[in-house]
Amino acid sequence: MSDIADAVTHAHHAEWARLVAVLTRRFGDLDIAEEAAADAFATAVARWPSDGVPPNPGAWLTTTASRKAIDRIRRESKRDDKHKEAQVIHDSPAEPHGVVDDDRLRLILTCCHPALAMPARVALTLRMVGGLTVPEIARAFLVRESSMEKRITRAKAKIKAARIPYRIPSADDLPARGSGVLAVLYLVFNEGYLASGADADPIRHDLTSEAIRLARLVHALLPDDGEVAGLLALMLLSEARVPARIAANGELVALDEQDRTAWDAELISEGHRLVRERLVAAAAGTPPGRYQILAAINAVHTSARDSSHTDWSQVLALYDQLTRLDPSPVVGLNRAIAVAELDGPEVALAIVDNLAEPLNDYHAYHATRADLLRRLGREQQAREAYTRAIDLAGNTGETATLERRRGQLQ
Length: 410
What we know:
By secondary structure, the chain is mostly helical.
């Protein structure tokens, strides 16, 4: 029985996005596609224990889901017209080889359409492409199931009402749409990598693994897109450090204090390979984007055998390059950390203090400032900055780390 359960789970991970995508193309309705796909997996759970796992689970699920969708259409209003439509679909010729991948890309781009608010894009992508249940998504973002259900329902309704087409955008529009997809996946990964909820686990492995899985899917569909490769590399190199990020007492462990032997060498190797490939492309005249630069920064950190051997001059050069693309206060804050390692905490503190207005409500600003003040021996000011960071931090592991550092002050 456990083998059957494993087969269903594997099929769900491997086939959900493809199945929903194919059904959406055939029937033109996200609701029908989602319900039929879910019904097909429920049927598999009921029948595979007695019938056995079919030789081609994907084909079995597609056939079953298509029948479920046709049955639903027949039950709906305007039965005669819908019945004819369903019969035409049912009798249509088999799809040409290679269409499936395009369908999955269409689904991702549809879920990440710029007409939808970013929270709706994230939720819809996790449901329709990732296959997470509504309760799972609600728990991930610490909202009530009913609220998440409404968010997803409204997103699907807006797609239908606005007649958002289920297609690959034109060549001119694709880069802008692709950036929206990457932004959604980056948000999903970051929420898992440093969970924002006070009562959530410090790291949400379900979200980081799902974001990586979806990024791999997009990379397979768009293998020549440098920013897709860059985001995947960034995720892999960050995920590789997760085994060393949580101490036994639940604290988040800073990068310079992590046991690097606990890092996932396989993920690091894959991430470095992707970064090297993008460096070759950059040398050939294709300038790197934001995610590629962030991945390169992470590659520098994960290349050093310990923190003392980090090439901070290279890190700073990469942040300078990133600042030209994204002159945001958060990038400036991270750049200041590299400055502190090269030019000292006093120079870095002057940079950080200039970011006070835009980052006053950002816990990492106050945590960074507290660390610099501590290094300068200004302990009372450091204590105040740590307290402010603790008040703003939502992650339990990060709060514990900040409290320990504040407690170490004289």
